[in-house]
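Data availability (excerpt). The following record was deposited with the supplementary files.
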Amino acid sequence: MTPAFVIEKNLDLYALLGYLNTWSAVKEYQKYNHENPIELIINDLQAVWGDPKEQRIMRWPLHVLAGLIH
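Predicted structure:
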């Protein structure tokens, strides 16, 4: 079994929102809907996050497919 690979980063709410706004899907949504989809969820995010300056651990699992080509 292969080991789990994970990227971990501590982010506060502002950093997370900045990161989400870099996604191409957000840009595409804005292009067609003329509004930022992050604005649609920001109140819910703030409610569950609490202090926006509090850092939380974000984890992104990485999956690797490796093999040999002969």
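Summary of structural features: The chain is about 45% helix and 20% strand.
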